Structure formats: structure tokens, C-alpha cells
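Can anyone check this?
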Amino acid sequence: MIYVGTSGYSFSDWIGEVYPEGISRSNMLRYYASVWRFNAVELNFTYYALPTYRTIVSMLRRTPSDFVFSVKLPASVTHQAWKSNTFPEEDVKKTLQALTPMFEEGRLKMLLAQFPYAFKDTPSNRQYLQLLREKIDAPVAIEFRHASWNNESVYGFLKTLGFTLVIVDEPDLRDLFPYVPKVTSAVAYFRLHGRNKDWFNAPEGERYNYKYSDEEMSIFARDIFNLSHQVVDTFVFFNNCYRGNAVRDAMKLRQMIERALLGS
């Protein structure tokens, strides 16, 4: 199964660009699933604030039964705890408890652990990944930002732990992790951030100001199509969210993949 969607869905600068004027935030997810016909979404608000059980149930009720979710782990897990090689037990416990309805309905497909640029391939950081595996008994995708993790021993390490490598696309700058279409589990997981050359200096919202060309998208479509034959599920999330670019690019990529599937 190939799932295509965006990293988040509730953005004010999408209104009037891809969402209709006047849409309420409470109607965005329903619109995302029913009008745009995306079959998955990556929830990023969970990085900043722990989700509530009520919020998760509401999301399930506003989407079709075959619509699935990937949920980003909180900042305490990926950006703080590894510095002291501890683990935020309570944050993880609360997050997993809130996500119980998604687990029960089989609609939570992945937890996303996006580590920062400062998280480099060191023995202590590998130990932290082992700790993460011990503490979370659920599918986890690991996203690296630093290029030191781009080596075969790391990919073997992820396979041993049962982690999914996040295949990232981002600017070719200062040791950012490169685009490596490789799988380490039964899942292929793409996160496409755009290639804004001002990545390190742009304000947070504008870091993802980028629209992919047809040529760039055709490469993604080819790799997604090829890897989908090696795995059970393939996820593709566009994170170039500035002014709705992620939506437009996700729709275009979906068309390319559908054409490839029809021709196979």
C-alpha cells in the first residue's frame, strides 16, 4: 500500500491558497481526507504538546476508516533526553495512552522520531536509540538530520533494532543528511522537506518554502514505485508546507505514482 499526504494539515497560510476562504480549523482534516482524498497524514503538533485522548478520537471520527496516521514523538524524546542519556518515561506514557484509540482501530501506522542536526553518530547516541527501542513497543521511524549517520553500519543497526529509516529530501548543505532511498524494515518512509538553500537562516516557517519541479518529482515517483515492491507499506509525506506547496506537490506526485501503477 502506498500512502501519500502532508506533514500536518492545519496551517493558517493554507487558507485561500489550497483551503477555501473561511474554512474553520475544525473542518480542515475532514476536507483534507474527503476533498483532497489523501489517505494519510503526519501529525506534528504532538512534538510541541502532548495529545489528549479526546483530540485523537475526534480525528478518527472526522476521517474514513481506511485513513491512517503517523505521529511525531514529543521534543523531550528526540531533542532533549539523549543529551543526558535518560528517557522521558512520563511523556511517552501519556502520548501512547492518548493514541490508544488509533492503535485499537489499526490506524496508527508509525511513530516518527525526528532527531536534530546536533544528534550525531556517536556510541552514546546509538545507546540512546537502543533505549528508545526498549521503551517503545510500536513501529518507529527514525529521521536523522546529520550526515554522520549515512553509513552502512547505521543501516544495519536500524535493521537490528527494527527501526524504519526515514528517507529525507532536504537541501544539499553543511552535512545535512542526504537523500538515500533505502529501507531498513518492511516500511518505506519518505519525508520531503524541499530544497530551500536558505535552510539554516530562514525563519522556521519559511525554511520549507520550496516547490518541487516535475523532474525532481519524477525521481521520487520512480524510487517510491521501486521500493514499494520491497515493503509492505510506503509512506510519503511532503513537509514543504509553506503556502500549501506540500498539498500541490503531494497531489502531483500521487498522479505520477498512479500512472506508474497503471502502466506496470
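Reply from J.R.: I decoded it. The chain is about 35% helix and 15% strand.
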